[in-house]
């Protein structure tokens, strides 16, 4: 019956059935467009096409497939809908669906590549084409529900809506959390009950219109904190308008992304078409203000007050969170079977300035710190003549391509190579690991992968011994799994073990991965011993492991040996020896070491002070992509270290550091916004960047965030939150945070008065001897007007009283 249904529909609608020997007319070039689509070249037609691999199952039946084809036939004539070519029936349950290829990639890639040259006339044209295509769907009672900038294509400068995605990814529940910024907040709030609809498409259009206007991925820097972002979007968090955006255009997308009472697609279309040239001309004149934003994260903008209150007052914050978590859990349970039967991939089997986090800080007059430490779719030429496959691209037999169900092994190698590169560039530490995590998760997202599945694939890989260090890193930082220091320790230990570092004929091509795997294993294991993660602190053992990594040939290992000498970990403190070891690695080209050497020259530690050399080494570190190097280079330009003061240039380097998820860079960027250094003054942005810095455990960012809560900078005054963040900063080792926490206990700021705790935290902060001259330390410990001389003397007397009491 189902077969008759299919044949009847195909015959009536003149659907092309491509013969099975069509396989012989195609060669591939290894270009994956998604988990189940592939770009290929038809030899006979000399034309690039896209093949989608569809598997019929209980969750997606033949009847579903026919119904979706019926929907497509209703909209296929629209000029902005991707064109269908034909069907290749591979078996009873497997179908290959062929459609045209869009030469200008996804909308996200198109904007990234061309945004500087796109005028507002071009932006408006793209927006109108998008809305026109969705209008065609809605008029035929079809809604897309999966609109985002990686799902929209651009063909020779014009939008192509991939209607096939309405059935192609139905089982991909993980997409909901990959692209949460585009998803209807009502659905995010109640995944189990709420059904996506036409209004959901309108919300997605609003986000996409903003993205077209800005050229920036919505909430890009916040995606690493997925659940926190999800909650914020549900509560009304939205992006802010880019300077230079026409008022009418802005009004359209703000109306689209309201929580309630969104316009219809007809209203959106009419409003877009009402924008005239003069409206755009006004925007072009102001567009110069946008340039500095192209590399920075655009912060959130809430809904109008009435709309937001109507939404947030429905339930208490706790009730909303419980309901949300319950909804996610229930949906995940129901999706388990669907996910297990998800379309199998069609990839071919591959035959073939901070001194190690927050340990060393030099505080400046401006309360900042000198710190030291330490695309989706392959691009095809717009010229149709340039379609020849290059020599270095693999050719696969298409029959093997579509019958092989193994995941893409090349992706695992590429991800491991990225991890190795970033580990050596950034160095692993409390203050820099967030940058490695950022690069890994960005690459995973870019390739539509699931971190949990990737971890499983690494663990089950036939050459698992090459990847135990990245497996350990996933466990240490909770990528695709829960944080598990014991598992991380086991994996690093296995990577560091000499018995695992053996070669045979089958592994000759993997010697690079084996070697780097052991280097990273030794350094990571040493770091666990240093910090006491999953094992008792043992500085001597850590020092030995770092030395062993150097003996094995690790350049980065020299820098960690230098750290041990700097802090006296497992060896007698010796700044000269510290500089010697770091310089060895820096001269070998290691970016982390170059940043440390720059710090040494800046402060004259272990060598003579030379600010010009400091600048040179920071530049070398930044050129290689060290995000802390960017931050320290920005500090040089802000303060005139080895160069003339240039606050605008400093701001630009801080942006690069902050975008790489470096906590010190984010803290410095926030400082610029707070004080108008190199940019316009914006307390709201300052607060949000301080928040980002604090979340990734930057102690100075935590202290500055607390300061914002205490004084109401960029947010409302909240003494209790101020106390909580001062406490976190103090516990993370910030001297300024410890002084401020002492002040909180002394005056009852956000907590009850406790002179004993006030004194204890003051002692930790200033580390002074019991002499009368130390009253000055008590008086000036925070350079803070809250503390008067009388109180300083009282603090000093309390110090004596407490010591006498304990004697």
Automatic annotation (TrEMBL):
Region (Disordered): 343-381
Ranges of Basic and acidic residues composition bias in the record: 352-364
Superkingdom of origin: Eukaryota
Pfam families per the UniProt record, alphabetical: PK_Tyr_Ser-Thr, Sel1
Matching PANTHER family: ERAD-ASSOCIATED E3 UBIQUITIN-PROTEIN LIGASE COMPONENT HRD3, SEL-1-LIKE PROTEIN
SMART domains noted in UniProt: SEL1
Gene Ontology molecular function: ATP binding; protein kinase activity
Domain Protein kinase: 23-276
Comp. bias intervals (Polar residues): 365-374
Name of protein: Protein kinase domain-containing protein
Recorded family membership: Belongs to the sel-1 family.
């Amino acid at each position: 019956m189902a077969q008759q249904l299919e044949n009847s529909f195909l015959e009536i609608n003149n659907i092309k059935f491509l013969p099975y020997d069509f396989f012989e007319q195609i060669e591939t070039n290894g270009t994956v467009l998604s988990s189940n689509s592939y770009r290929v070249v038809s030899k006979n037609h000399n034309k690039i096409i896209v093949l989608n691999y569809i598997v019929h199952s209980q969750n997606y039946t033949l009847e579903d497939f026919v119904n979706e084809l019926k929907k497509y036939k209703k909209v296929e004539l629209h000029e902005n809908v991707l064109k269908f070519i034909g069907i290749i029936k591979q078996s009873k349950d497997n179908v290959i669906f062929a459609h045209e290829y869009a030469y200008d990639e996804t909308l996200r890639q198109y904007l990234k590549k061309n945004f500087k040259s796109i005028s507002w006339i071009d932006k408006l044209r793209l927006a109108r084409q998008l809305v026109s295509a969705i209008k065609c769907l809605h008029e035929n009672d079809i809604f897309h529900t999966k609109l985002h900038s990686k799902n929209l294509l651009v063909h020779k400068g014009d939008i192509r809506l991939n209607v096939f995605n309405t059935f192609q990814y139905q089982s991909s529940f993980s997409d909901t959390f990959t692209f949460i910024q585009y998803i209807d907040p009502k659905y995010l709030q109640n995944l189990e009950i709420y059904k996506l609809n036409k209004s959901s498409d309108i919300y997605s259009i609003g986000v996409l219109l903003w993205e077209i206007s800005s050229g920036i991925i919505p909430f890009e820097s916040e995606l690493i904190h997925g659940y926190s972002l999800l909650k914020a979007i549900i509560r009304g968090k939205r992006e802010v308008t880019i300077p230079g955006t026409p008022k009418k255009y802005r009004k359209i997308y703000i109306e689209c992304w309201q929580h309630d009472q969104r316009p219809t697609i007809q209203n959106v279309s009419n409003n877009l078409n009402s924008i005239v040239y003069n409206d755009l001309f006004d925007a072009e004149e102001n567009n110069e203000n946008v340039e500095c934003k192209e590399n920075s994260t655009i912060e959130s903008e809430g809904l109008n007050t009435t709309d937001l209150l109507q939404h947030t007052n429905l339930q208490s914050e706790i009730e909303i969170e419980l309901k949300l978590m319950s909804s996610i859990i229930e949906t995940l349970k129901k999706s388990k079977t669907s996910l297990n039967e998800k379309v199998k991939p069609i990839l071919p089997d591959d035959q073939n300035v901070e001194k190690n986090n927050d340990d060393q800080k030099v505080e400046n007059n401006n309360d900042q710190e000198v710190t030291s430490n330490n695309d989706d779719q392959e691009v095809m030429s717009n010229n149709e003549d340039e379609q020849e496959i290059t020599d270095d691209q693999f050719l696969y037999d298409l029959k093997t391509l579509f019958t092989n169900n193994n995941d893409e092994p090349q992706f695992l190698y590429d991800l491991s190579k990225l991890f190795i590169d970033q580990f050596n560039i950034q160095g692993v530490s409390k203050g820099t690991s967030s940058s490695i995590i950022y690069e890994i998760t960005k690459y995973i997202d870019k390739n539509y992968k699931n971190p949990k599945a990737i971890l499983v694939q690494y663990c089950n890989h036939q050459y698992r011994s090459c990847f135990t260090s990245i497996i350990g890193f996933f466990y240490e930082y909770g990528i695709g799994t829960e944080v598990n220091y014991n598992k991380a320790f086991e994996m690093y230990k296995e990577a560091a073990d000499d018995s695992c570092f053996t070669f045979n004929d089958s592994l000759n091509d993997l010697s690079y991965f084996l070697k780097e795997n052991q280097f990273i294993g030794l350094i990571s294991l040493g770091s666990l011993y240093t910090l006491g993660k999953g094992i008792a602190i043992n500085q001597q053992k850590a020092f030995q492991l770092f030395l062993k990594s150097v003996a094995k040939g690790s350049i980065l290992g020299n820098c960690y040996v230098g750290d041990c000498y700097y802090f006296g970990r497992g060896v007698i403190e010796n700044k000269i020896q510290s500089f010697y070891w770091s310089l060895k690695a820096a001269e070998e080209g290691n970016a982390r070491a170059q940043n440390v050497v720059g710090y040494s020259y800046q402060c004259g530690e272990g060598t003579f002070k030379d600010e010009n050399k400091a600048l040179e080494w920071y530049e070398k570190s930044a050129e290689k992509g060290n995000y802390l190097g960017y931050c320290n280079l920005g500090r040089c330009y802000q303060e005139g270290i080895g160069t003339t003061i240039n606050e605008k240039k400093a701001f630009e380097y801080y942006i690069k550091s902050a975008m790489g998820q470096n906590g010190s860079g984010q803290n410095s960027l926030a400082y610029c916004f707070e004080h108008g250094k190199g940019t316009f003054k914006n307390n709201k942005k300052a607060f949000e960047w301080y928040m980002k810095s604090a979340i990734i455990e930057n102690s100075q960012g935590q202290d500055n965030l607390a300061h914002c809560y205490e004084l109401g900078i960029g947010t409302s005054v909240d003494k209790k939150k101020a106390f909580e963040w001062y406490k976190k900063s103090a516990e993370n080792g910030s001297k300024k945070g410890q002084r401020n926490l002492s002040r909180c206990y002394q005056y009852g700021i956000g907590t009850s008065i406790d002179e004993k705790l006030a004194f204890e935290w003051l002692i930790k902060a200033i580390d002074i001897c019991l002499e009368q001259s130390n009253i000055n330390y008590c008086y000036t410990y925070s350079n803070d007007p809250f503390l008067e001389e009388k109180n300083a003397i009282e603090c000093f007397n309390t110090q004596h009283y407490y010591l006498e009491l304990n004697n």
